[in-house]
Amino acid sequence: MGMLSVSIMPVDFGRLDEEIKTIEHTGVDGIHADIMDGCFVPNITFGPDILRAVKKATSLPIHAHLMIHDPDRMLKEFADAGADWLCVHVESNVHLSRTIQHIRELDRKAAIVLNPATPLESIEYLLHDVDMVIIMTVNPGFSGQKLISSVIPKISRLREKIDNLKLPVLIGVDGGVHRDTIGELAAAGADVFVSGSEIFSDNNLEDNVKHLKEQIAALTRKKK
């Protein structure tokens, strides 16, 4: 069954505890924390201390999406701060297999993230070692971007590879996920949908989440 994870980039960090509790009550399946260092991407968000505060406010699983250079040096800090998943970019990593091994040693779920222009061939050798591959459907760094539709065939090709290998690897999609695009993303084979700007587009967070989850459930039933 498809899962909806909310990106917390748009939240009011001055009211973090309240905002996270509100998100949890909407019925989402997870929290997606975008960690940006201003180098790998041109934006800066937050570090382990904020993630620790998020963890205290929710029982939902937390994906720490590390959009940072040399993520190995920060893996333990984010694991200790409460990340259930550690998501690392192939583009920021020199020794990706060693990074995945480090995540395993920290007893966390491992995800590889690919930017839109990065080919699947760069991570095929690691499909047996990870729990999820996240396909960026926008260029990382900013919330509210439009989906790059030319990435969708990459999702389909990855779905075919994973199914042919009979692996329990999830496919996540991050960027431009809203009610007008979630159908084609699900049809392409995505399992986990990261949405931020769509959910926070107005004050009706619960209705927005409900609508997206209903679409995911209907599309999942149709694929069976």
CATH class wording: Alpha Beta
N to C succession of SSEs: EHEHEHEHEEHEHEH
Q: What is the count of β-strands?
A: 8
Number of helix segments? Answer: 7
Kindly report the average pLDDT value: 92
The name CATH uses for the topology is TIM Barrel
* Domain module tally: 1
Helical amount among residues, as a percent range?
25-40%
Question: What is the CA–CA distance across the termini?
Answer: 10 Å
The SS-based structural class is alpha/beta
**Low-confidence residue ranges:** none
So, CATH architecture?
Alpha-Beta Barrel
Give the percentage of residues in beta strands.
15-25%
Order of strands side by side in the largest beta sheet?
1-2-3-4-5-6-7-8
The gross shape turns out to be: globular
Largest sheet: 8 strands, parallel, barrel
Instruction: Work out the radius of gyration.
Output: 16 Å
Please, what is the CATH homologous superfamily?
Answer: Aldolase class I
Give a quick summary of the entry:
This protein is of the alpha/beta class and 224 residues long.
Describe this structure in words.
The chain has helices spanning 16-25, 48-57, 75-81, 96-105, 152-165, 182-188, 205-223, and strands at residues 3-7, 30-36, 62-67, 85-89, 109-114, 132-136, 170-174, 192-195. The mean pLDDT is 92. The protein has one domain (3-223): Alpha-Beta Barrel (TIM Barrel). 39% of the residues are buried. It is globular, with a radius of gyration of 16 Å. It has seven helices and eight strands. It is α/β, with parallel strands linked by helices.
